[in-house]
Write a structure and sequence with these properties.
alpha/beta; three-stranded parallel β-sheet; 6 strands; 182 residues
């Protein structure tokens, strides 16, 4: 599952290119997110048209926030080859939902593989193809262990209630006392 805006920064075209290798095998990619850059989306569509028939890509449009848990529940993994993220909320959501994530090393989500929660990858086609192959080759029992690892890592990375309350206090002060609620 690719769940993000369709814009050059999120690097969907790179992911599509990585899936163009015949060694990827049978694979479904669901793309969910708003098209922020029509020209870039046309480039992605042209690349999709060149994929082998064993790779099926479906674009589902934009998801409402309430729909995100359902998309994640149906997904085998989240893929986000972003060129840069300050945080990557969708990664946090995927991990908390127990879905391994394949993300670029241009995000703050490092050592996912060490946590058995996913893969943090350099933006090279070989690295992405290898990680996708490793994920696809996991026997069901091992995959379930990675899902548990993702969930544990996601929950550990979630801000505590105290941290969330402290953030709201700062925002309250910055907004000149205008009430903010959680």
């Amino acid at each position: 599952l690719y769940l993000s805006r369709i814009t050059p920064k999120k690097n969907l075209a790179f992911l599509i290119q990585a899936l163009g290798d015949d060694t990827v095998g049978e694979l479904d990619l669901d793309i969910v997110g708003p098209v922020d850059d029509e020209r870039y989306w046309r480039r992605c569509q042209e690349a999709i048209a060149q994929l082998p028939s064993s790779v099926r890509v479906r674009y589902h449009g934009e998801a409402m926030p309430d729909d995100v848990p359902g998309w994640l529940a149906r997904a085998h993994a989240l893929v986000l080859p972003s060129l840069g993220e300050n945080y990557g909320y969708v990664v946090a959501e995927a991990l908390e939902a127990g879905r391994p994530a394949l993300v670029s090393n241009e995000t703050p989500w490092h050592d996912l593989q060490g946590a058995r929660a996913g893969w943090t990858l350099p933006l090279t086609l070989d690295a992405w193809r290898t990680a996708i192959g490793e994920l696809r080759a996991l026997p069901d029992e091992a995959y379930q262990a990675w899902c548990l690892g993702a969930r544990a890592h996601g929950l550990a990375a979630s801000p505590t209630d105290a941290a969330a309350e402290a953030t709201l206090d700062v925002l309250r002060q910055a907004s000149c006392g205008t009430p903010l609620s959680r």
